[in-house]
Amino acid sequence: MKEFLCTDRDFKEIASLVYDACGIVLGDHKREMVYSRLARRIRERKLNNFEAYLEYLKSNKDQEFDAFINAITTNLTSFFREIHHFEFIRTQLIPDLLKANKQSKRVRIWSAGCSTGEEPYSLAMTIYNAFPSTWDVKILATDLDSNVLEKAQKGIYTAANVNGLEPAQLKRWFLTSKDGESYKVKDKLQESISFKRLNLLQDWPMKGSFDLILCRNVVIYFDKETKDQLFQRYANILNSQGYLFLGHSESMGKEHSQFKNLGKTMYQKSTDAR
Fold first, then answer.
1. Tell me, what DSSP letter sits at residue 30?
2. Which residues are tagged catalytic?
3. Cα–Cα distance, 89 to 77 (Å, whole number)
4. Distance of CA 194 to the CA centre of its chain
5. Which of 93, 192, 198, 259 qualifies as a cystine partner to 267, CB 3.0-4.6 A?
6. What pLDDT sits at residue 273?
7. pTM score, whole prediction
8. Angle between helices 61-72 and 8-22 (to 10 degrees)
9. Residue 259 φ then ψ, to 5°
10. What sign does the CA torsion over 252, 253, 257, 261 have?
């Protein structure tokens, strides 16, 4: 017997609200996950069931809706996750940009779905000092979940979070607490990153174009129509021959002629893309 009643109607309404807000598709196989995450909100609000919570959500949308979306979204990440992407950046992307952007001296990278910050900080470690000091190099890191974004901005991680990093990396990029249980990203690494809250399905306030976009383990939650629209928008905001990296379980169909597949979930904007 579960603590709170969650009917089929309740789940369908939740799924509809989430899809309309951020394009995430919640199939029946996500019912247990939805239950466990929203049950916490129901307890906090001292309500009796999911129906009562949905009524509360409608009446208090300004106060509760962000917490509702934050509870549903999944945030699983780590430093240098899918290491082949960072090897490509180091060995191919950086040398290419040094040549292609030598006139503008401008580089822009977007971590779309940055979660708790491990991805943009890994990017910053990879490109740090790779470009001359006269260049304008910036990383934009965005996420829908305001809670994980707050953690990313603080840049404080547990020993378990940084377990995969080399001792030399920890020494160079982090300040260690006296008890050795927490690690704070050094200011010099944070300075090149701008953290912003952004719903990918809404308007994008960014001006200018990007050399690289990482949208890893995000589109897996979208339906095909939403994915297609998002891929087109990425193509529109990428520089000519810019790159798009997806997650290990994601792919782009051959019908997306605006990109060419480089393998290992790496795509490059086609020269004839519009």
1. G
2. 37, 143
3. 19
4. 13
5. 259
6. 53
7. 0.84
8. 90
9. -130, 150
10. positive
Strands (E), 10-95: none
What is the amino acid identity at position 130? A
Strands 210-215 and 238-246: parallel
- Transcribe 220-244 into DSSP letters: GGB-HHHHHHHHHHHHHHEEEEEEE
Q: In DSSP terms, which residues pair with 143 in a beta bridge?
A: 197
Could you state, in chain order, the average pLDDT of each consecutive group of 10 residues for the chain (274 residues)?
Answer: 91 94 86 91 94 95 89 82 96 97 97 96 97 97 94 94 91 93 95 96 92 94 92 96 93 88 95 61
Amino acid at 69: I
What angle separates helix 61-72 from helix 50-59, to the nearest 10 degrees?
A: 130
Cα gap 102→110, rounded to integer Å: 20
Helix or strand holding residue 54 (H, E): helix 50-59
* Extended strands (E) in 6-131: 106-112
